[in-house]
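In the previous chapter we treated chains in isolation. Here, by contrast, the input contains two separate entities that must be folded as one system, with a combined length of 320 residues.
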Amino acid sequence: MNFNRNHLRFAPLLLFFLFAMLIASGLLSPSGTSTRLSQPLVGNKLPEFTLPRLDKPSEYMMPTQWKGQAVLVNVFASWCEPCKLEHALLTELGNKTQIPIHGIGWKDTPANISAYLRNMGNPYRDVAMDEHGTSTTLLGISGVPETMLIGRDGTVLWKYAGPLSADIIQDDLYPVWNRYNATSAAAR
Amino acid sequence: MRRQLPLVSTLFLTLFLMFPAYGGNTYDRALEERAQGLYAELRCVVCQSESIADSPAAVAQDMRRDIRTRLAQGESEDEIKRYLIARYGDFVLLKPPLSPSTYLLWFAPVVMLLIGIGIIIAYFGLGRIYRR
């Protein structure tokens, strides 16, 4: 088939399809849909923080207290509807994996957080209060709920902004957790 | 002289009490301008098409406060941006940096325009475009 000038009329249409394909591949790629934001803290040490404990405000929660054990950190608030939605799943996750969950009450009062835990149940090993958001930018919090899996050396293994779902736990978290256990078992 | 003493001392006392209003005022215009400049460059990670200058979101509020505190502590704009990028990614900058991964983003519109012009020229022929 000879291509002559007249065939050029199809060029814009062809280019449009190529462009649409490019956009579609970006939109549909798995990393584009599973998290709200890219999580650059993953692979790095969790920044040090000091937050007063809910039950004893004169004592503090600090990541150094967790060394030697993998933990989950869950940032939540009593005014946060998605937090209520994920609460049961979070509790189940803690029970199933036996990973301790440390809670941070974010931009909320101790009274509200205490009431929330009384009503919903308390899945947390301990809870610290960040009433004024002093740890927000430090930990790269973009909203509540947010959940992180921290390795026993303090490395952030996984960070998820948004309410946990069965799919997220199954497809995102468990592979990371299993891979971590496999590599740390091999290292011993 | 004696009779004026109460009035004069009252005036001095008033002046003294006014000191905090102008002498002790900690408003630092230079700092505020640098802070506002940074706010305009950073994306609110919640309402993602707004800068943190305009956003009412809680996270934006915390970011503004922390930026101002860090500037006051002597950190540079670059250090603060790096601090935020380390936690939120390049996405936190409203203008994405020019790096190999963003070349496509930056240059695609221009490239497509050039391709479009190229097609028009090829289709109509430069001669025809000139004569028109």
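Helices of chain B lie at 5-22, 29-41, 58-72, 77-88, 103-124, 126-131. The interface with chain A takes residues 45-46, 58-59, 61-63, 65-66, 83-89, 91, 112, 115-116, 119, 122-123, 125 of chain B (CB under 8 Å). Compare these points with the single-chain example from earlier in the chapter.
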